[in-house]
Specification:
The protein is an alpha+beta fold and 419 residues long. 48% of the residues lie in helices and 11% in strands. α15 crosses α17. The chain starts with 8 loop residues before the first helix and ends in a 20-residue tail after the last helix.
């Protein structure tokens, strides 16, 4: 009769290969062995092995490391495997079949993944890279409004171009810019599904396929409707008559030539009234770089007229909550239909080019645009702040005097002084 249970707990704990050997196997009886291997760190690895022969072939099945599977548990596992051999079952084949079943089950679970679940997984991975709240909000809003109600419950593996068409067709001609962005977002989420093995290699939201079904998207010229700079002073005069915080926010935005979200997100701890400087942190800038904004006399006056709460938003409505961008747009279009708030950056750029002799690069720096190629940017350390103080005060002076807004005049820079 074969002997069983040859090893003791102490022997298992202290087992090591014989002198001069790299690996050794200590039998416990009943096909169970403790395999001991020297490790590179001069320690020892101890693992359980179930060794058997079947149809003339020897097999070694690992039962786990000794520090996880104790002696008693290893003997129980070995007893189960001996019973399989007694019943004519090959333990190695049984293990392979169980592994195949687990893979098949996982494949079935993957196939049951809905588009909504896939979108949630995509969002979890990529949302951390969306540094601007506006970009994140647009992604989430477009999915919740246009996509998930239509295909959210569909198996992501079953989505075809017809489903994508059903999402996009109602908005393809009515709001083409949004439709184009949503098509691109759908394509990225489905690429995520393809990369994860959740569906086949085809992407039914690919631009070529969608275009074949819905036609070419009707894009705008890519520019925001901007007020001619010659009309800006008269507009500012009317804007100053409105005793509204939203009017002051719009005026401040025009004076500083920044983006709407940068103004509405401004906090008092970003403002230095003593040095007449507004420093917008990198995380709130489109280019992910800190932007210092010199403040003109009028810009400072606007800030001084507002209630100051350190650390809180500069521009708050009557309910002490931040404005949204729609508030400024509505205010503007009630005064001048068709105009866009962002377009005032173009108004400033046109004015700087046509009415002043300030360098092109200086105006670009005022707009927080990158100047020059990568080599130029690598050597350019400054942001032209002192010069930008002069150009922003010149801009404010121009906007303050409608009667002087004559085309063709060039500002005498020698008459301008930094405040």
């Amino acid at each position: 009769m074969r002997k069983l249970h040859l090893l003791t707990e102490l022997q298992v704990k202290n087992a090591k290969p014989a002198k001069g050997k790299f690996v050794d196997r200590l039998p416990d009886g009943g096909n169970l062995y403790l395999q001991v291997t020297r490790s590179l760190s001069e320690g020892f690895n101890r693992n359980w092995i179930f060794r058997y022969e079947l149809d003339g072939k020897r097999h070694d099945l690992g039962l786990g490391p000794a520090h996880t599977v104790g002696l008693k548990a290893a003997r129980a596992k070995a007893a189960e495997l001996r019973m399989q051999l007694y019943d004519g079952i090959d333990p190695a084949e049984e293990r392979a079949e169980l592994k195949a079943e687990r893979k098949a089950k996982l494949a079935d679970e993957i196939k049951r993944l809905t588009f909504a679940q896939c979108w949630a997984a995509y969002h979890k991975v990529h949302a951390k890279d969306w540094k601007h709240p506006k970009h994140r909000k647009q992604w989430e809003s477009s999915m919740q409004t246009y996509v998930l109600p239509v295909i959210g419950n569909l198996n992501v593996a079953d989505i075809e171009t017809a489903h994508v068409e059903k999402v996009l067709s109602p908005i393809w001609d009515k709001i083409p810019e949004s439709a184009s962005r949503i098509q691109n977002r759908l394509s990225m989420v489905l690429n995520f599904a393809i990369a994860g093995g959740y569906r086949g290699k085809d992407n039914p939201a690919a631009r070529a396929l969608v275009k074949a079904r819905l036609g070419k998207v009707k894009r705008s010229n890519g520019h925001y409707e901007a007020m001619p700079y010659i009309d800006a002073p008269a507009f500012m005069a009317e804007l100053r008559k409105q005793d509204l915080v939203s009017a002051r926010a719009l005026e401040f935005m025009i004076l500083t030539a920044v983006r709407t979200n940068e103004v509405l997100g401004a906090t008092w701890d970003e403002i230095d009234l003593t040095h007449r400087l507004w420093t917008i942190p990198a995380e709130r800038m489109k280019a992910d770089r800190e932007h210092r904004v010199p403040l003109s006399n009028r810009a400072v006056d606007i800030l001084k007229s507002l209630h100051h709460h350190h650390g809180k938003r500069v521009f708050l409505n009557e309910a002490k909550k931040p404005f949204n961008e729609g508030t400024l747009l509505k205010l503007l279009r009630n005064m001048v239909p068709g105009m866009t708030v962002h377009g005032f950056r173009s108004t400033f750029r046109d004015w700087a080019a046509e009415r002043t002799a300030y360098p092109h690069d200086l105006a670009e720096l005022c707009l927080a645009h990158k100047v020059g190629d990568a080599t130029v940017q690598a050597y350019r350390r400054g942001d032209g702040l002192q010069k930008r103080f002069r150009i922003m005060q010149t801009w404010a002076d121009f906007l303050a005097k409608p009667q002087t807004a004559k085309s063709g005049d060039v500002v005498d820079l020698n008459e301008r002084r930094a405040s």
